[in-house]
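Q: How would the C-alpha cells look for this protein?
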Amino acid sequence: MASKPKNNDVPVPAAPPLYGRVREILDAARSNIARTVNTTQVVANWLVGREIVEEEQAGKRRAGYGEALLADLAERLLQEFGKGWSVRQLEYCRSFYFSYPLLLGTEKSNAPRSISDLPVDSKSEAWKPGRLNPNLSWTHYRNLLRVSRDAARTFYEIEAARNAWSARELTRQIGSLLFDRLAKSRDKDGLMRLAVQGQEIARPIDALKDPVVLEFLDLPESPRLVESKLEQALIDNLQTFLLELGKGFAFVSRQERITLDGDHFYIDLVFYHTVLKCFVLIDLKVGKLTHADLGQIQFYVNYYDRERRTEGDNPTLGLILCPDKNDAVVRYTLGEQQERNIFTSRYQLHLPTVEELENELRRELRFLAPAESGATPEGSLRPVRKPRKNKDEA
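A: Here is the predicted structure in C-alpha cell form.
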C-alpha cells in the first residue's frame, strides 16, 4: 500500500513576489532583445548608406547615375530579401549616412564595413547627439531625417533619447514645431543652448510654450466652444496634455475651490512643476483675453502664495491659455510687479505651420523696441516688460 506523501514532498506554489521578480527579468530580456534588433537594423541601414555614398558615389551627394544605381540595387535586393528594400528605403539609407556620418563614433576611414566588425562594448563613451543611441529605432531616425535644419534635428534627437519618446510621439513633436515654439522665447545664446543641449529648465520661461498645441483634443475651432468642454477634453487626454506641457509638470487638481468670506472661486487646473519647485495655476479661456482675466489669475496666484505655498516652494506661476490676446493689454495690465510669474499663451486646436509662427512673431515685434543690428527678438511667453535699452539688459 502506497504511503501518503509527506508534507515536505508537496510542491509549494511560487509566491507572488517571486513571480513579480521573474516577470521583471523576462520583460527586461524582451526589451533588450527588441533594442538589440532595432540597433542592428539602424547600423545595417547606416552601413548600406555608407556603401552607396562612399563606394559608388565617391562621397558625393549625388552621382550622375544615382537614380539608375538605386533602382538596380533595389530590384536585386527585393528579389533576395523581399519587401522593404525599395528605392525610397535606399534613399533613406543614403540620407542617413550623410546626416549622421559619425554615428558609430569613428572617423569615416576607420568605420566598420559590416555589423560583425562593430566593437563589443558600445557604451565606452558617453552618448552624444549624432552618435548611435540604442533607444532610438530606425523609425525614430527616419523621422529625424525629415527635419532639414541641423539645429532642430539635434534638438529632437536629444529630447527623444532623454524623454524616451516613442516614434509616434517624436512624429507629433516634430509636427507641432516644438523646437520653433521653444526657440521663440530665447535670445541668440539661449537658442544655441537649445540646439546643443536640448530643453534645459532654469526659469519659468524655459518651461512654457507659445502657442500650446492641442490638436489631440479633436475639437473644432468654433465660437460655441465652452470652457467646461475644453477643460473636460484636457482631463480626458491628460497624459497627452502633460506631454504637450513638457517635462516637470505634475497634475494636482481641477476646479480647485477657493473660499473667501463665503464667496467661492474655482481654479481650472492646478499643476506642480517638479523642476521649478512651484505650483502652476492654469486658467482656460475660449474667447479673447481681457484685462479682467489677467486680474483673476493674479488673484489666484496671490492666494496660493499666501495660503498654499509651503517651505521649499518657489513663487506660484499663473498661466492663461486663450485662443487670442492683445499683447498691449497684457503689458499694461500686469506691469513690472507681476512680470516674473504671470504668463499668457495662445492655444491652437490644429498643428501650426512655420508661416503661422512667423506671423505671430512679427505681430509681437510691434511691442518691442526697434530691433538692433544682429539682435534676436524674443517671444510673447517672456513676461511683458519695458523695451530694452541695449542688448545687455535682460
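The first strand starts at residue 212 and ends at 213.

The CA atoms of residues 89 and 211 lie 35 Å apart.

Upvote if useful.
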